[in-house]
Automatic annotation (TrEMBL):
Coiled coil: none annotated. PANTHER family: CYTOCHROME C OXIDASE SUBUNIT 6B. This is Cytochrome c oxidase subunit. It comes from the Eukaryota. It is found in: Mitochondrion.
Amino acid sequence: MAQDMEVPATTFERFSELYKQSPALRHPDSPDWFRKDVSEELKKKFIWAAPYDARFPQVRKQRQCFAYYVDFHRCQELMGQDYAPCKFFQNVYKDICPGFWLEKWDELRDEGRFPAKFDR
């Protein structure tokens, strides 16, 4: 049942797909920037935000970022690389976490010094 779950693509994946279809971006002086229908269409296609999580009510998102990063890698470790629902955790941590944190954590994981266990 969970394997049939539809997880939306990340914003980055959506932009990558759009760029493959038409690599030319709109010109900065294009009147399309001010058209409401174009704006609404882009909002529907590309905007994805992490849902509210009651475990993390505070404004600072460090713990939530770390928790979802660990949850994603734990899910992949326990359920396998091709288990689709794990992508939800990845969408959330990529939406919340700054890139330099992710780079550092990936580096620590590669070195075996990351402060969390993924096999439990």
